[in-house]
Amino acid sequence: MGANENRAKNIRNYLPLIVLPLALIIVLALWANLTQREIAEVRSVDGVWDLRDVDFYAGGPILLSGVVEMLPSTLLCPAEFAARQDEAVLLGGVPGDFATSRMRILLPEDRIYSFARMSLSFNQRLYVNGELVMNMGVPGETRETSVQELGYIFFTAYPIDGMIEIVQQSSNFVHRVQHWHHSIYIGVGPMDFIFDTIAARSVIMGGFFAIFLMYIMLYFLLNRQKANLYFALFCLAWCIRVGVMRPLDPGPFNFLFPQLSWEMGFRMEYIFTLPAQSILLVLIINILFPGVLQRFFRRLVYIVASLAALSFIFLDTIIMSVYLAHAAYAVLSATLLYIVMRFAMKIRRVNLAQGIFLGGIGMMVYFALAEFLGRLGIVSLPLHMGQETSVIIALMFTLCAAAAIFINTSSEVNEAKESERRLAEKNLLLDRLNRTKSEFLQDMNHEIRTPLTVIASGIDYVDGQIDENDENMQQTRAALETIRNQTQRIGRMLSGMAALADMGEPGENRKRVNFTKLLENTVEAFRIQLDKHGNSLHVDIAPDLPDIFVEYDRFAQVIVNLMANAAQNLQDGQITVTAHLNNRASFIVVRVKDNGDGIAPEILPRIFERGVSGRGSTGYGLFICKTVVEAHGGSIEIQSEQGAGTTATFTVPVYGGQEAGHE
């Protein structure tokens, strides 16, 4: 491996270490934008806000909080509210399903004021200084008469007699938690800041989606590695979770998909926050740290997460958000703590990728605990500032995990390349050894055949000198016959071994062949030998057989071997050779049939094994036939019955337009 290749490899491995700090800086900037905005807050006194001494130009918008004048279980216009104001009570949140409230704000009359907020209930009608300014859905006294909607509210107003009066009707039959009628921003300029959260969340959502796209492509490009797939799905789950609606906070998906209902968005948020991410996180850990999480624990997580997902699909949203959410965060915190404990017990040395991933896990553990403790109101841990913090931490963990998985994937790719290189070297060495073996066997075949020929000739000479009428020499003649048979057997074995060694790689010498001529020429060459032993040959080749794409010499050897097997020990018998197309005209079917003694039943199932013979031969012939035929895409079988003969059948594909030397 050259210096440039090593340098490129190091750059690929450590690229995440260069990109990760830059990405974390961007995330921290988003965090600062979401969590460090300082806005002054003014609380009401008996439902009235006195802002006459506030310098709006010196600071930014002001958040109005506190109690408002409220008439529960009524939906009144401003005049009707004024007529019943003696019945009003001072409350911050609506105690029932619907109510009317009034806010009175004392202000200087020298300017126009801007107001902004997210809608505080799911159906709202707003009056300013007695005039109807907007409807957010349709408030009603029953679920059937209400039309739910959730969004942002913007309006401007001018004080009349030093006061702006805001009367609001609201109803909530879909998520029956206490909803507030205050928490409205007031200022003297554009209220663009209220979109900062949406903008930041859109950037975060885009970040998750970009990482999802990158790793799903890596999954398809790099041998379908499951770590990349699981991590891509993990990022997609967070992308959906960030984009969907919260109970009182529309997300980016509401702008992209206005038809997305509040309830659907709410359920999607809960499903993709805990169940989906828990399952995917365990799957990722099991790949990066095999053996750390026991099988029973993984199965327990899958079962609990699946049950939680089902409950988030069907249960009431109040039960989900008030009760199940606490339980889910408790389970998540316990799960993460258990994972950390298992890491401490099992991991002694970690590599770079694992170290980065564990750092991200540590952040997740801390902020999961902070979220759980914050929900219960037990303690507020440092750095935790609500739901937006958990989203930022999730993105930071995702970046750490992305870097870890990238390094892990890059290492696996490098290992695969190194394995391929070693395999190529091994194959080259094996090829050299194979050629050496073939050359050795060919040399041995050549060198041994010469003395075998001399021995056979000597046997023939001695046999010719023996007097056939001399009974004392018959034993000598029998011994010579045995020597002759064994000498011929050694010669056939050498030929078979040399043929096997010379087979090489299938397909390297293939070409288009006229099969009819190949079959006729090979079969006819045997006719003289058959006639010598009184055997007859019958050939039936179908007309216009198509060409085949084979190695000529090998297929000629197949036919020779089958003919030799059929002729062996056959005396005054018959051999029949037929060739025709199969029903689909995709294969040529060849049969070589004899009426000899057949093959013993105990030998027949193993007849194609190397060294197995039913007729006393070397056992290489049929093994070679099967190897050659199957290498060319055909099949071969032997049917035999003792006393009734043997039939060998093989098939060969017809020519399909291949190029010479290629399949």
Q: What is the total tally of β strands?
A: 19
Query: What structural class should be given to the helix and strand makeup?
Result: alpha+beta
Strand content: 15-25%
Shape: rod-shaped
Ranges where pLDDT stays below 50 over 5 or more residues in a row are: 7-11
- What is the straight-line distance between the termini? 34 Å
Largest sheet: 7 strands, mixed
Q: Approximately how much helix is present in the residues?
A: 40-55%
If you average the pLDDT, what whole number results?
77
Radius of gyration: 44 Å
Contiguous helical run count? 16
List the keywords.
19 strands, single chain, five-stranded mixed sheet, alpha+beta, rod-shaped, seven-stranded mixed sheet, 663 residues
Structure description:
The protein is 51% helix and 16% strand. The chain is built from 16 helices and 19 strands. The protein has 663 residues and is α+β, with helices and mostly antiparallel strands. The longest helix is centred in the middle third of the chain and has 79 residues, at 387-465. The strands form 4 sheets. Strands 2, 4, 5, 6, 8, 9 and 11 form a 7-stranded mixed beta sheet that branches. It has a 5-stranded mixed beta sheet with strand order 1-3-12-7-10, with no helix packed on it. A 5-stranded mixed beta sheet has the order 14-16-17-19-18. Helix 1 runs antiparallel to helix 11 and helix 7 (275-288) runs antiparallel to helix 8 (295-314). The model is unreliable at 7-11 (pLDDT under 50).
